[in-house]
From TrEMBL:
Residues 340-482 form the Helicase C-terminal domain. This is RNA helicase. Keywords: ATP-binding, Helicase, Hydrolase, Nucleotide-binding, RNA-binding. Residues 1-98, 627-674 are annotated as: Disordered. PROSITE patterns: HELICASE_ATP_BIND_1 (PS51192), HELICASE_CTER (PS51194). It comes from Solanum tuberosum. PANTHER family: ATP-DEPENDENT RNA HELICASE DEAD, DEAD-BOX ATP-DEPENDENT RNA HELICASE 47, MITOCHONDRIAL. Pfam families: DD_DDX21-DDX50, DEAD, GUCT, Helicase_C.
Amino acid sequence: MASEDLMELKKSGNGSSADSHKKSKKTKIDSGSDSEEIKKSKKKDKKRKALSLDDQENGNSEVLEPDEKKKKKKKKKKDEDEAKLVEEDSEEKEEDPNALSNFRISVPLREALITKGIHALFPIQAMTFDTILDGSDLIGRARTGQGKTLAFVLPILESLINGPTKVSRKTGYGRAPSVLVLLPTRELALQVFADFEFYGGAVGLTSCCLYGNSPMGQQQVQLKRGVDIVVGTPGRIKDHIERGNIDFRSLKFRVLDEVDEMLKIGFVDDVEFILGKVEDASQVQTLLFSATLPSWVKHISSKFLKPDKKTADLVGDEKMKASKSVRHIIIPCSSSARSQLIPDIIRCYSSGGRTIIFTETRGYASELAGILPGARALHGEIQQSQREITLAGFRSGKFLTLVATNVAARGLDIDNVQLIVQCEPPRDVEAYIHRSGRTGRAGNTGVAVMLYDPKKSNISKIERESGVKFEHLSAPQPADVAKAAGKEAAEAIAEISDSVIPAFKAAAEELLHTSELSPAELLAKALAKAAGYSEIKSRSLLSSMENCVTLLLECGRPIFSPSFAYNVLRGFLSEEKVESIKGLTLTADGKGAVFDVSADDLDTFLAGKNAQGVSLEVVKELPRLQEKDQSRGGRFGGGRGGFSDRRNGGRFSGGRGGRGGGGGRGYGNLGRRW
Ligand SMILES: Nc1ncnc2c1ncn2[C@@H]1O[C@H](COP(=O)(O)OP(=O)(O)OP(=O)(O)O)[C@@H](O)[C@H]1O
């Protein structure tokens, strides 16, 4: 079996000395989180990691020492412009091994990068640049938002204009494409196309984007005229092949971005068909990228790559597979409470930036977008032209909340997405990783909130497989949200011009004279009105339902089953009241049960709390609950004692998730967005 080179960035911080650093064939880095790494990259930290090539099977490592790399670069012919640029970047070159000037990136491309504010390569880019430019097939993995797109765009372009594929690349009218990039969604195809268009354009290469539900004719004309780079979705590309519009005889590169999604059922046949159209695969470099590489992908993908392919894996065996620059929060919420809760979650955690809400179905995405003021839906049933308008509006800030299905889960790179809300846990862990990765990109931070129904959802599986340690929080309480809204309304009132006073003064004086309330109380009401409040309801910690209160029942001995809990309640409550309770769930410690009651019934329930040694109290912090798969003997968990909560000592750590629990500015947009 042919050996596969494995490149990996290793963590330092494990006692490796400077000396061993030099001797070691691996260059190690001190990596806290991805964002830290990227921030370090941005700050030109001297302790940058560099590249190491390990042989996956025998543990041998081939080293590209930074010094050797520099020598190699120095051999480059430099024209005047380049000399100037190098001079400008000389400080970076000395300080940052990943500075652009340390790579074989030609001047126009470097200039194009600098106009986008890019002065150094991100780790995955630095790690794979030479390997791709020098002709290897490659599988690349880095967490979401770490710059995988440029990791293939830059060396491909450089190879075509200055590198090994330059000589045999077709040029002129009617030329067949040199590069084929396949992506799973049209939005993603357009996004990657935009990068090729911009950076390729800077070096005189043309690109086109082929995706379904858009006119064939224009695409045909582009292909006929000749393009260097074809980006698209498998269905439409297959269509063009079948119509004889594309010729792959001159192909130099083929890229599967989001490779695991591309090789899933539904795409794999088309992908195989397309890749199979390359007659001499030995002449073509194949590159596969994704943030998630389940083992089955590695298996299937070996079919398409050469035996001496390389793997650049920045995630590797690390437990944490999702973005490290994202706060991962879960909040219990029944499906019927979602639409009431989500606006408050946005108020608490979006820091005034963009929010993407993920739903499991297209219908619910449309429904929710209809309910949430200022939100728009994006899913597969919406016409392509509308999808593009919606995404453009979201990118440009025309509206700040996008409600989407998994069509937006992968790859989309949108500035200032501060918050991701997942209405329920997704079916697979990859979806969780990609969805939550729409925030916290390129060294920024973000918040991902996932709602779950404690009686239905299995959080542990996602936690286990993604390596995420969820922060367990309860829903923000409306009273807390309202307090913050009141503060903002007060600030807004202070800014209103005095010119309005004469018009409103008479009504204000009239109110003061006729009302029994104090001036402060009246002003409080005015602030409530300004912030859009007419009443403040309580919210259950268990289901997030408004006007419900969560109670904890304990009876001095273990509660093994829901029916046992119901029987205890029947001891001091009427059947009617017992039947009115909602969402009864056993606690993880096996000692209690929590359930919701209507706020109006609270006194009736609390009146009987001392009966037969029973304790019944309003829950301030939701205790850890038994999960679906943790229970023995059915859905409600007959398991003795359930599972213990070693992490939080039996209590959720976050308590009320409202004030101070938010990311960044907290309730930055109260009263404005809704
Ligand atoms: N070297 C760099 N310096 C600064 N910003 C960069 C650099 N490389 C990429 N970026 C920016 O980082 C962002 C994320 O990049 P990209 O979309 O390629 O991430 P990704 O790893 O493909 O994420 P995902 O797995 O979610 O698709 C983009 O906005 C991109 O412009």
